[in-house]
Task: inverse folding
């Protein structure tokens, strides 16, 4: 019975480790997407700075560069929106997966606690039977 109890505890520890590893993996994915968003924002800021520098140049060149930079800024803004949307979707998915893992882990924990209690009761019953 003590062997069963140790075995159940080891299984519980393994399930805990698996859940923690899943959470760590999801957190890494979220950090990577956040880094991509920051890079896109930096590119947009740089494009905006380029746009301001070009205002001091000739009118035709200014117009051409303005159009190009504006398109670049819009492209980066769209990329930022897309990355933010993807990040949001991944965060929602990760939260759902994490909640499912937590529920699964909790159910596993509850089942193991029930089995441990049943083993304890069996041990008490056996001791009573042996004593009698």
Result:
């Amino acid at each position: 019975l003590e062997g069963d109890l140790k075995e159940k505890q080891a299984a519980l520890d393994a399930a805990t480790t698996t859940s923690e590893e899943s959470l760590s993996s999801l957190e890494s994915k979220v950090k990577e997407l956040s880094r991509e968003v920051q890079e896109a924002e930096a590119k947009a800021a740089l494009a905006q700075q380029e746009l301001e520098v070009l205002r001091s140049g000739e009118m035709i060149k200014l117009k051409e560069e303005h159009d190009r930079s504006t398109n670049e800024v819009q492209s980066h803004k769209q990329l930022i929106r897309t990355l933010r949307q993807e990040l949001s979707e991944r965060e929602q998915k990760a939260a759902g997966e994490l909640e499912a893992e937590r529920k699964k882990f909790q159910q596993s924990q509850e089942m193991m606690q029930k089995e441990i209690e049943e083993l304890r009761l069996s041990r008490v019953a056996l001791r009573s039977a042996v004593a009698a």
User: Anything to note?
Assistant: The chain has a mean pLDDT of 88. The longest helix spans residues 59-131. The chain is about 95% helix and 0% strand. The two ends are 20 Å apart (CA to CA).
